[in-house]
Amino acid sequence: MERRWKMALLAIMAIALIASFFVIVERIAAERDNRSAAVAVDWLQARDYGKRQGLTEAQILEALQGKANVLLFKERLFSELISDGLVSPYNAGSLRLDVATGQIVLKTQNGAAVAATDIATDAQYYLFSSPAVFDTVLLNLEAKRLGEFYAYTATAGNEAFSCCGSIFPYPI
Question: 24-49 as b/e, with b when 16 or more CB fall inside 10 Å?
């Protein structure tokens, strides 16, 4: 019986080897017919490099023209937004104190004022210096349905911010 199993396995391996020969022949023919290669560039890396060189976005794109045929755009990580200074983490206790003393005025999306006691202590809060970044993050949060979050507008003196509080199993 053992000899039959060995013969069956050898037959299966021989069939697989013959089948792979046809696949490799087709692959070689496809590679021979197509001699081009795609060169992809990550837009964020190219933009950051260009900024360090003092180039505008238009100059960066002009420099890439003819050299790269794929430009990769991807969603920025929340940690990158924080490290770039576009988002600042805010402690719930500090936010409550600042709202209670009037240093920060929070309003809901419909314009209602938020009292210090309405600020959840178990939430994580973030101040956004750019409304465009805030809108993008909110769209991503809604699309990903990561959990409960609150969106506010914040005013500190003459400065206006957007604020987002979240109750997630993990930080956003």
Answer: eeeeeeeeeeeeeeeeebeeeebeee
46 to 37, 61, 132, 159: CA distances (angstroms):
20, 9, 21, 32
Q: What angle do CA 68, 81, 61 make, to 5 degrees?
A: 20
Question: Which pTM does this prediction carry?
Answer: 0.55
Question: Considering only CA atoms, which of 98, 84, 96, 146 is closest in space to residue 122?
Answer: 96
Q: Token match 């590679």: residue?
A: 31
CA 7 to chain centre: 53
> pLDDT per residue over 121-152, tens digit each?
777 888 888 788 888 887 877 777 666 677 77
How many Å separate Cα 42 from the centre of its chain? 13
Task: Estimate the crossing angle of helix 57-64 against helix 43-52, to 10 degrees.
Answer: 120
Please give the sequence-ordered ranges of beta strands (E in DSSP) within 21-137, or none if there are none: 40-42, 70-72, 87-90, 105-108, 124-128
Looking at this protein, which amino acid is placed at residue 166?
A: S
